[in-house]
Amino acid sequence: MIDDEDFNPLADAQFETQGVRSGISRTHEGEHSEPIFVTSSYVFSNSEDAAERFSGAASGNVYSRYTNPTVRTFEKRLAALEGAEAAVATASGMASILSVCMALFKSGDHVVCSRDVFGTTISLFSNYLTKFGIEVTFVPLLDIEGWRDAVQPNTVMFFLETPSNPLCEIADLAELSKLAHLNAALLVVDNCFCTPALQQPLALGADIVVHSATKYLDGQGRCVGGAVVGHQQHMDEVLTFLRTAGPTMSPFNAWIFLKGLETLRLRMEAHSRSALVIAEWLQQQPTVERVYYAGLKDHPGHALAERQQSAYGGVLSFLVKGGREQAWQFTDATRLMSLTANLGDAKTTIVHPATTTHARLSSQQRKEAGIDEGLIRMAVGLEHVEDLIADLQRGFTGIR
Ligand SMILES: *Cc1c(COP(=O)(O)O)cnc(C)c1O
Questions:
Q1: Is 6 among the domain residues?
Q2: Residue 331 belongs to what domain range?
């Protein structure tokens, strides 16, 4: 049993083992699968116990806004997989990013953020952080000089995603963490696309990892959630913010996510395997101008991705010859893949970024970011790769 005090079989266990067994401290009724604790509050054994748990002097559950055993199991398991001291689960991916900012930063601070991050992250930083006197500078992900030039005396955080969405650009985490630390700033990485199964940013120098668990950690498109992962001291501060403000993960969702972690490595390997086959196939198609996938040898980030990731992930993009009209004809002629902006699902999804995920950008901004009118993003799911290729073929036949 795992709670044997003298021997912890997980201490040196591999990723796959941590994925299925970490985070369980004891069983309650001899159950083998993790239970869901659907309770808002907890009973104390006596008044002294209540006082101690309230003050934090004794560990133990108090109230599910900030302590729930099912949520705790998910947090411990994810922390083990990221190689982190601790994790804090949040209501969504956006809540994880907000919680980092609210817990660790203050008015007068400055943030440098990659231009190539999730659109809502850009909105959060530019429309809300600025309201509370936190300044933000956006820089192109791969422009190291740009990051260096953006630093101010009050810079507290570098924030980025790698691979980027939708062009799969690869940022050098070791290099950017050095630059951040040289300036006494934290490097915060949104590890949504790779998950710890493919990339562990903390081992490369990042200070904090944030997740949209909604994507690959669940992996089957069922619920919304997020997490912050990192040093115990930072996580204590993030948890205190959650305790105060309340963007907590529900125990139901935590259970979905912790079961998702059990198959994470297998799923990420399968997504990556199919994505590479599809990327190579797309390169052969006369209607395709360019394919963006770090697994391709001619991708500018290939060598770095090979060092930094254990596989290239499930998301790729490609440029259909022509423009918006041809891209829409393609997507509308497919029949199997889901036309949706979501990703990280067993079901393959495709989307036209210029008119959906990146529609809020001006055409000039889209041009600078390389979001062409003919660009299609694909998040390769777990269907058989030949069926996906047949559907892509259907799409191309639809281009007139
Ligand atoms: C979806 C997503 C988010 C936001 O997560 P939610 O769970 O939808 O709040 C943040 N970052 C990335 C990279 C995402 O894809």
A1: no
A2: 265-397
Res 1: pLDDT: 45
pLDDT at 187: 98
Of the residues 262, 290, 310, which one is the last residue of a structural domain? 262
| Residue 93 alpha carbon to ligand 1 centre in Å | 5
Helix/strand number for the chain, H first, E second? 15, 12
> Pocket of ligand 1, candidates 97, 192, 208: which has the most ligand atoms within 8 Å of its Cβ, to mutate?
192
**What are φ and ψ of residue 174, in 5° steps?**
-65, -40
Q: Is the beta carbon of 161 within 6 A of some atom in ligand 1?
A: yes
Q: Which residue has the tokens 């892509």?
A: 392
Q: How far is the CA of 85 from the centre of ligand 1 (A)?
A: 23
What is the value of pTM for the model shown? 0.96
Phi first, then psi: give them for residue 235, nearest 5 degrees: -65, -35
Low-confidence ranges of the chain (pLDDT < 70): 1-5
pLDDT digits (tens, 9 = 90+) for 229-259: 999 999 999 999 999 999 999 999 999 999 9
